[in-house]
Amino acid sequence: KQVQRAYNFNAGPSALPLPVLQKAQEELVDFRGSGMSVMELSHRSALYEEVHNEAIRLLKELYKIPEGYHVLFLQGGASLQFSMVPMNFLQAGKSAGYVMTGAWSEKAFAEAKLIGEVFEAASTKQENYKRIPQFDELNYDKDISYLHITSNNTIFGTQWSQFPDTGDVPLIADMSSDILCKPVDVEKFALIYAGAQKNLGPSGVTVVILRPDMLERAAKNLPTMLRYDIHVKNNSLYNTPPTFGIYMLGEVLKWVKDQGGVEGIEQRNREKAALIYDAIDASNDFYRGHAEKDSRSLMNITFTLQSDELEKKFLSEAKKAGFVGLNGHRSVGGCRASTYNAVPVEACQALRDFMIQFQKENS
Ligand code: PLP
C-alpha cells in the first residue's frame, strides 16, 4: 500500500530507506520463522549471530575494508569514541593532534584533553569553519600518538574530499555523518568511527573500523567496556549488543548493495547534492552557501538567506510544504538540508523546486 513519507532532511537521526523499514515491519514479530522478533532472540543464538556476522561481512565488502581490519559494533555513540580513542591510544609522554573543522572536532578535542596532551594540528575556526584546511596547513610531528580528523562537519556543511597520507602517524577519523556516502581508501586510516544514525541505521550502534596493529599499542589498564581489544576478542559480543540496531544496520547495507554499492550511492549522492547546490549558485545571492565550494559537503548543505526575517519565512513555508529538518543547527542558525544516503532523489528535486519557487515569490 502507498505510504505517505515526509521529505526528511533531518541531520540525525535521519531518513532510513523505505524498503528497509518495510522489511523490518514484515519481520518484526516473526523473524525467519523463529516465532520471535530479532529483539527477542538471545544474542548467543545461532540465528542472531548470523545477523551480526552478516552485517560485519557486508560492511567489509561494501566499504572495501582491507584484510585484517576489525569491524566493531559498540554503544555510547560517536561521543564515547571521543573518549575511548585517547584512552586507548594517547600514549604517556606523547601528544595527539586534532584538526579543528567544526563543533564536533571541538568536542572530540575537549574530551581528549581530559585524558592527556593534545594540540590543534590546524583550525579553520577563524573563518567560521567554512572550509577544510589544505594538507600543507596540517602541522604535527612524526612522533605523535595519532592525528584526528572529522571527515564531514555536520553542522557547518564541509567535508574532506581527499585524505592526507600521514605515514607512520595513525590517522583517526570521525566519519559519523559521511560514512559510506562515497568510496574511501580505508587503508589510510588506523581507526574510523561513526554513530550509525545518519547513513547506517538507527541510533544506538556505533561502528568502529580498526587496523589490527593498533591493538598492540592500545592501553590495557582501562575499564573493560572501554577496551577495543576486549571488543575485538569477543566479536562485539562481550556484553549484550544493540541487536535490533545491528539487524537494521545489516538491512541498510543490503539496500546499499542493491543501489550499486557505495559507488552507486556516491553517484546518487552527487546528483542529489548538485540539485540543491545548483539552486543556491543560480540564485544570485538570494541563497548563500556557507561552505567554500571545494569544501562543500555531499551530506549537509548549509545556507542562509538575506535576512533573518526571510529565513524564518522560508523555514516556515518549507515546513508547511512538508519538508522536515531544514533548520540549521541551533549553534549556527541558517538552513541546512541533510541529504544522507537514504534521502531519495525526489526529495531533493522537490526541495530544489521549492527553493526556486520561494525565490520567485520573494524577490
Ligand atoms: N560526530 C559527528 C560528526 C556528528 O555529526 C555527531 C552527531 O551529530 C556526533 C559526532 C555525535 O554522535 P553521537 O550522537 O552518536 O554521540
TrEMBL record:
Pathway: Amino-acid biosynthesis; L-serine biosynthesis; L-serine from 3-phospho-D-glycerate: step 2/3
InterPro entries: Aminotrans_V_dom, Pser_aminoTfrase, PyrdxlP-dep_Trfase, PyrdxlP-dep_Trfase_major, PyrdxlP-dep_Trfase_small
Main enzyme class: transferase
Annotated residues for binding of pyridoxal 5'-phosphate: 78-79, 104, 154, 174, 197, 239-240
Required cofactor(s): pyridoxal 5'-phosphate
Main location: cytoplasm
Amino acids binding L-glutamate: 44
Keyword line: Amino-acid biosynthesis, Aminotransferase, Cytoplasm, Pyridoxal phosphate, Serine biosynthesis, Transferase
KW Ribosomal protein (keyword) present: no
CDD domains cross-referenced by the UniProt entry: PSAT_like (cd00611)
NCBIfam families registered for this protein in UniProt: PRK05355.1, serC_1
Family listed: Belongs to the class-V pyridoxal-phosphate-dependent aminotransferase family. SerC subfamily.
Assembly behavior: Homodimer.
Stated role: Catalyzes the reversible conversion of 3-phosphohydroxypyruvate to phosphoserine and of 3-hydroxy-2-oxo-4-phosphonooxybutanoate to phosphohydroxythreonine.
Protein name: Phosphoserine aminotransferase
